[in-house]
What does this fold into?
Amino acid sequence: MVYGIIIHSSESEQLYFSTYYNLVNNDINQNSRQQIIIKKVIEEINYYKEDKENNENINKKNKDKYLDIFGVFIPRTSNDEFKIDNEGFFKIENISLFKNKINIMWKVLNKVCYTLMFFPHENIHMADNFLNTLIYVLMDNYEHFGKSNKNNMNKFNPDTVLAILYFFLPKGQFMILTPDYVQILSNKVKEFLGEKSNPKQE
It folds into this structure.
């Protein structure tokens, strides 16, 4: 199960969107946990930036080796419209922050970081595929419904993000997202958002 999702700047602690599915750790310390995670992710991003050439190949080899441990390969969504600028993965095992161990996967595109928090028993292939799909669908919906406002906050309108998560991550559970199924769900999201923005008149 997914613990939560944070969308934030890759250069600062500016928050665009966050939501949580797990109630075990959802208490008065949730905001401080969120800030700690964002800071840690930004540290990771800066680390890779500073020593990109040396660490890029090592990170890719380690990640591929780690991915091979888990289950059947889940095909990633094929999409040539965007290329992730940076990505990484780490674990949090500090019981003072979380009662359970948490995996953190993050991806950066256009100075926006998409951070996914999920439990260690989850399939990392499905987590990786979901995060790529989420980014793609967010961009696709932003293109589809217009760019009246260039501000990132408008791009990550909570209603839009929550609608996408409702279809692509029901109750915080990963699904097998094949390209065909992604297209079906994307159409459902657009239909839902279209009806919401243009309610039927009786």
